[in-house]
Every structure is written in C-alpha cells, then in structure tokens.
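I'll show a typical protein example:
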Amino acid sequence: MSEWFTNERAAGMSLFEVAHGCTRREKMKEDPADGALFNAGMVADSRIIMDALLRDAGELLRGVTSLVDVGGGHGAVSVAIARSLPHVRCTVLDLPHVVAGAPPDDKVEFVAGDMFEHISAADAVLLKWILHCWKDEDCVKILRRCKEAIPTRDAGGKVIIIDIVVGSGSQEPISKEMQVLWDLYIMYVDGVEREEHEWCKIFTEAGFSDYKIIPVLGFRSIIEVYP
C-alpha cells in the first residue's frame, strides 16, 4: 500500500497489480487453484443472497421467462432460480476458462463469452457483484450490452443488479473490522462503491429510463433498471 500511495506509476494500477504484476482476473485464469477458491467463495455468497432474494423479493421475477446471469461463475444464482422457478430459462455467461470449470447442471445453460462484446437475448439480465469491480465508463459499456439483450419495459425487460448502494440497505450495524476489510478489498480490485446519484448517472448514460432500489440483506440492495 505504501508504494500504491506514493508511486505515480503504481497509483494507476490496482493494489493487486502492484503486488503481483498482473490483474486479479489474469491471475485467476493462470492459476486454476486461485480461480477455484474465488469461485467457491462466490457460490457460498450466492446461496446466502438467493435465500433472501427468493424469500423477500419474489415479485422481482414475476413475468420473467428467461434470464442471463452475466459473470455468473459456476451458476449458483441461476441454479437457485431455476429450481425455485422452473418456468424461468436460465443462462450463465462468463469467460471461457470459468465456464469450463463449472459443474454440469441440466437446469442451467453455460455460455462462454465476453460481456463487453455480446449478451444473449432474455427477458432479464442479472449482474451480481459485477459492476462494483469496474469504473463508470466500463459499467456504461456493460449496461449498453444488457440493454441490447432485453425487450422494452412494456414487454417486461429489465436489468437486475445485486450490489451496494452506499447509504441504502438495512440499518443493521456493520462491524468496523468488516467495513475496513471490505474497503480494502475494493481498493485491492480497483473497484468503486456508488451512492444512488452515481448509479443513476451510469444508468442514464447507458440509455435506461428508470430504476428502483430494493434493500434486501445487510448492506446489499437489488436495483431494477428499466429500458
């Protein structure tokens, strides 16, 4: 961290790049054990958030018959949705090396691809813990691809974001240690945590017309974004 704060060249990179000489994503691709550890963590986190989502926000998927989980890793979110709502056709889009390691599941289709290039057509696109890893200009690019993939709002099209809205969510106290570790993680991946007006800015730039924030669990929120 000392180098990151004091060296101009290092300041232009993430903490991870300063320490390892490559990005976090490059490291996971090159080191299968590291990637497996990350994916296992995401699966565990998904089980927690999906219990809350399917219990408290069932209306979220009303009318949705197809969903693409962008950056969905090994499909824990999509599997939970498909098993609870079997009429919803779920697809996971992730990078080829991630999809290659995903366990087979007859309820979910895995597609190798790049969210910056193309997202398959569906009623809804899900982005869980994705956008906080990217700067505003990259988020706008991702959201524009999402908008291309979904139908109009009148036809039920929406993007569903599971992320943090600073100042929103539950008022339950968060331990100082947890908050410090989370802030460190965001610096480590060179990520961004956004307040509502910052989310609104990237939604508008990506061409969306409206959004709704639903606090669901702790400091997390669901954001429904409409074309």
Remarks:
- The two ends are 41 Å apart (CA to CA).
- The chain has ten helices and eight strands.
- The longest strand covers residues 158-166.
- The beta strands are 66-70, 89-94, 108-112, 124-128, 158-166, 194-195, 210-217, 220-226.
